[in-house]
Design brief:
This protein has about 400 residues and is an alpha+beta fold. About 35% of the residues lie in helices and about 10% in strands. The protein is built from 15 helices and 13 strands. Strands 1, 2, 3, 4, 10, 11, 12 and 13 form an eight-stranded mixed sheet that branches.
């Protein structure tokens, strides 16, 4: 009951309205809902939760499918929580930018200034800017990633191992998606603030926004009581490579690790609040959680000013600060109809968030079906939402 009440309060802050009043074509909106409903009915996707925000209003949360992957599972709960994987990254990135606003760091600070043991094996020149833009040369996953997870290693072990790694290229000379860059950003938050990254994000962002069903790593209290919060987490369909492991997405270990590159647990309603914060240039009610200058910097093409990054990457695969920007000519996950002012991210568990300041619209699709590398269901959902905009 308390968990459900919190969920309802979370929804209430964004006014829920009809598709027509929000500037959505009702017939096309219903067509999109039927599309998603069909995917869950045919078991192509076990569960899906979605919401659209437009012009300060929300469609509310629409949920389809099952809470668990098994055929005899009950329907997905109306207060279901999803593991959103790499959508975690831009949210951690915005946490780093709070430190920038407060004068505690600048983007060209070297990582070794805050984590001295990082500055070896050619990494002395890696900056916070490089971590946020995937231009550091760090690996996506560590060479011994499987061994660390099998041993249920804590986050400090991932930090320690990242500090040992060499780079694939000189920092700022290429673009390579790097989850371990966000591992280091979480550690920088910890060392600068003196508090773990999950606590910092909760205190500075989630609680002010009323994101009470959101956590970077499930706290112990989520596992306690007769009706534990953890029961609300929708079970993810596990890729074959993880299936027989003791560290897959549905294990307590992974749910509690709080990986800054992919461990966020949240709901469509809570994520809609974060999207609305971005659409409002950092303002939430009477509070200014970010300056408009920070939101603008986070969501513009940072690669364009990095003279050694290949021109092709700058032009066709731009990155903001933690945010993936519109990639023209690429259908993966974001689909085909989004505009040049669009930004967002997706996650390996089958999740998508995009925000378009020109349309004053955000779309959220959280599923329990991994879709990498193409994100076909996410792309089709994205196209259907964009096509419904009046």
């Amino acid at each position: 009951e308390p968990a459900l009440r919190t969920h309802q309060e979370s929804v209430a802050m964004l006014t829920i309205d009809t598709p027509l009043n929000m500037g959505l074509n009702p017939a096309r909106w219903e067509q999109m809902l039927e599309l998603v409903r069909g995917w869950t009915a045919s078991d192509e996707i076990p569960a899906a939760g979605m919401a659209v925000v437009r012009n300060g209003k929300s469609t509310g949360t629409h949920l389809f499918g099952r809470q668990l992957c098994s055929a005899d599972s009950p329907p997905v709960r109306e207060d279901a929580i999803f593991l959103i994987a790499s959508i975690t990254k831009p949210i951690v990135g915005m946490g780093v930018l709070l430190l920038l606003e407060r004068g505690l760091l600048v983007l060209d600070d070297r990582v070794k200034r805050f984590v001295p043991e990082f500055g070896n094996n050619g990494k002395h020149g890696v900056t916070i800017r490089h971590l946020l833009t995937h231009t550091s040369g760090l690996p996506d996953m560590l060479p011994n990633n499987t061994e660390l997870r099998a041993a249920h290693a804590p986050l400090p072990a991932f930090v320690e191992e990242t500090c040992r790694q060499p780079l694939a290229f000189r920092p700022g000379r290429g673009v390579q998606y790097q989850s371990m860059g966000f591992c280091m950003l979480g550690e920088i938050i910890r060392r600068v603030t003196g508090m773990p990254c999950p606590q910092f994000l909760r205190d500075e962002l989630f609680e002010p926004l009323g994101m009470y069903d959101t956590a970077l790593g499930a706290p112990d209290e989520w596992f306690e009581g007769d009706s534990p919060t953890v029961a609300r987490i929708a079970e993810s369909r596990i890729p074959e490579v993880q299936a027989e492991t003791n560290w897959h997405w549905n294990t307590r270990y992974w749910r509690q690790l709080g990986a800054p590159w992919g461990g966020l647990l949240t709901t469509p309603a809570d994520l809609a609040r974060f999207a609305q914060l971005m659409l409002q240039d950092g303002r939430w009610g009477e509070s200014m959680l970010f300056s408009s200058a920070t939101v603008a910097a986070a969501t513009r093409n940072q690669l364009a000013g990095m003279r050694h990054v290949p021109e092709l990457e700058q032009r066709t695969r731009p990155w903001g600060l933690g945010w993936r920007l519109h990639w023209p000519g690429d259908s993966r996950n974001f689909g085909d109809l989004l505009g040049p002012r669009n930004y967002g991210h997706w996650g390996a568990t089958g999740t998508l968030l995009w925000i378009d300041s020109g349309w004053q619209t955000a779309a959220i699709m959280l599923t329990t079906q991994p879709q990498e590398p193409r994100g076909e269901y996410l792309a089709r959902f994205s196209n259907a939402v964009a096509a419904a905009l009046c």
